[in-house]
Amino acid sequence: MSNGSRITPSVMPSHTARDKRDRNESPADSLVPGPNKVVEPVQMTGSQAIVRALEELGVTDVFGLPGGAILPTYDPLMDSTTIRHILVRHEQGAGHAAQGYYLASGRPGVAIATSGPGATNLVTAIADAHMDSQACVFITGQVASTAIGSDAFQEADIVGITMPITKHSRLITKAADIPQAMAEAFHIATTGRPGPVLVDVAKDAQQAMMEFSWPPKIDLPGYRPVVRGHSKQVREAARLIQRAERPVLYVGGGVSRGHASVELAELAELTGAPVVTTLTARGVFPDSHEQHLGMPGMHGSVAAVSALQMSDLLITLGARFDDRVTGQLDSFAPKAKVIHADIDPAEISKNRTADVPIVGSVKEIIPELADAVRDTHAEAGKPDLAEWWTVLNRLRETYPMGYTPTEDGLMSPQKVIERLSEHSGSEAVYVAGVGQHQMWASQFVKYERPHQWLNSAGLGTMGFAVPAAMGAQVGNPDRVVWAIDGDGCFQMTNQELATCLINKIPIKVAIINNSSLGMVRQWQTLFYESRYSNTDLNTGHDTIRVPDFVKLAEAYGCAGLRCESEEDLDATIEQALAINDRPVVVDFVVSRDSMVWPMVPAGVGNSEIQVAKDMTPDWDEED
């Protein structure tokens, strides 16, 4: 995945900039995020400097849970008039909330925890943010610097633990280093390919006195993300597009992170090529657009998967050729040349060799590519893709996204999500956990805008939905936010309903309750002779209902609803949408036998996609 940098790297402040600072004006070329208001030197503690730095960086919302090693910082945090701290019930919830906040608002998410288990409870969220390229800053307390390495109470080397799963991590043992460390953390997290940054601050550094001034100097000599694409490579890409007979725009989450949906639409309409959007890119190109074929990959649409397989050119924008899209890599898009644009040079040719690599921000590259394509059109005319679209339209018509009625009389989960989308619309935000409900939500909600769909894609974290929805609601208080969750995922982080109620965060939770670990059960059905080892959860129809989700919701002070029949489906959704003074939990009791189709079984090529069990499209007919 990639993104476009929102802060263009530049040189450090010049004499002119320093002169402006003397006049109490912001240096125009500062790399420090935020308004860059000048603060003259003032004495304060390191903990006060952490809070003041957050304020100067423009942070308005943080999620956290205090403990001994971070306690010095929680004291001045109480006095802040611009930062809202939301007390979570588990540090993992703080981390996922920070992710949801970033994904829905585009502003960096912030989570705070104490040392030891407080910090290690953040690890799953940090790894998740790293896999999905999310700009989050995690601030942890650490034992006093004199005790580091002594196995002190609640000591854990969180910098060492998270080094492989952060974009940058740093231990602070001197109070004087705090302003620079905080500014650099936000700069690194939000520029280039976004990612999580950890700042671990020793307790004595928080307590010591220091001289605070703002903005600090950022000193990152080895960090200069490339933003502009190489013009020669862009022109070569345009020439490949001009010659292609079966091009496909393969669009990844980097286009969402790079805020380049408008630019993408321009390029797509200019080329006339089909567009496929990966799981993290859903919404960056409208589902309703006639050129959109849907999502590629293991549970993608037949049209999207087959378009990639039959393509002669992949115009790859902010995508990383991950295994869930490619299937068996050596048989993926076997006849296609590859244009690969990404801000992270490490992604280019990592999995699939690029014929034309372009390093840079998709926000910059896509308009440059569009201009180059216009030039080739002016020279040689616009290519005729009518024959290609005849093949693709036949595939769309023959294998539309759909589902079969259930045989046990219970609701179809796909129907529930379809109606949820119809009633809530494209202005709502949809957040999913991981599993069958995640795939159905990616397939049956109509996505028309970026930042409408949030999920844990790369890491696949069960328990993501509720706290991420909480963060999304804080970042977008005027939108309806649905957490579409499974009965298994929901039980991992549902304690954050207490956080939502007390902080007046009115998320809505749709539990797609099939009384099982649904995706695991699907694989057991298909590949393990229906031997259902440890997948029954006893939460749904004709079970002991442990827990009873309605009663659980009510115990947390939320509205609890249950829907067990299609006749009540629309009315239940409307009832949930009408409640806005507290969180709502709806227990949608669905069939446990419903499966996610289409499906590319693991370990095989995408040409083996099945539209139902043992049913593969007739490729000879389509070719």
UniProtKB/TrEMBL annotation:
This is Acetolactate synthase. Residues 234-369 form the Thiamine pyrophosphate enzyme central domain. It catalyses: 2 pyruvate + H(+) = (2S)-2-acetolactate + CO2. PANTHER family: ACETOLACTATE SYNTHASE CATALYTIC SUBUNIT, MITOCHONDRIAL, THIAMINE PYROPHOSPHATE ENZYMES. The lineage of its organism: Bacteria, Bacillati, Actinomycetota, Actinomycetes, Micrococcales. Binds 1 thiamine pyrophosphate per subunit. Binds 1 Mg(2+) ion per subunit. It comes from Citricoccus parietis. SUPFAM superfamilies: DHS-like NAD/FAD-binding domain (SSF52467), Thiamin diphosphate-binding fold (THDP-binding) (SSF52518). CDD domains: TPP_AHAS, TPP_PYR_POX_like.
